[in-house]
Amino acid sequence: MIAGEIAATATLQYFDREFAIPAVKLLPGEYYVTSGDMLLTTVLGSCVSACVRDIRTGIGGMNHFMLPDDADPTSHNTAAAMRYGAYAMAMLINELFRAGAKRERLEAKVFGGGAVLGSMTKLNVGERNADFVLHYLQTEGVRVVAQDLRGSLPRRINYFPLTGRVAVRKLRRQEDTLLVQHDEQALVQALSSQHTGSQAGRSHACVSDRRVNKKEWTA
User: Fold this and answer.
1) Of these residues, 44, 47, 96, 99, which one is catalytic?
2) Measured between alpha carbons, how far is 184 from 204 in angstroms, rounded to an integer?
3) CATH label of the domain that carries residue 129
4) Is 206 one of the catalytic residues?
5) Which DSSP state fits 171?
6) One digit per residue, pLDDT tens: the chain, 219 residues?
């Protein structure tokens, strides 16, 4: 395990050569909480990630959820529930508290909720995810100090919980956009299948990792 690790569901750990730091890549439906000096990274289309930390201790974490609606209350499948914002946010904040963070010292930075596919605009998934995360954090009394939500471009998020720094990179290249649109189309199909009693698979949640351009902004 990585030094300083407190709690995790994300398991894709590696050493990031660009930032020269241990890193964890979050997939859709995952979260990660740490007290260590490390990088948490994910790629978002219509999905949303909340980056939350205790500003005094540096204990922080990130999640990655697909949909704002709550999970089926009769379901006992934690992995499935983590796809939904209500459960994913509760898990992240509760794990922060368990790790020693205090509510009054929490700050949040939120990202994603893009409409990267025409049909996703009609379903309004990205917009709903963005509205949900802001409302949830306001209700929980957690300050949102930075956000990059909505829009038409997918994003790669690089979060450093110990310092609170976030580097956001927009995916602009045509080949990146085509791959993102393919993944988002899978989410559209998954949402359609839900109406017939099927559940979205984890791989449908958002875009996969890939090389992106170097244009970024820091929060």
Assistant:
1) 47
2) 7
3) 3.30.1330.200
4) no
5) -
6) 454 554 447 889 999 999 999 999 998 889 999 999 999 999 998 999 999 999 999 999 999 998 887 655 445 455 567 778 999 999 999 999 999 999 999 999 999 999 876 655 566 889 999 999 999 999 999 999 999 999 988 899 999 999 999 999 998 765 555 655 656 666 556 555 654 444 444 444 454 444 444 456 677
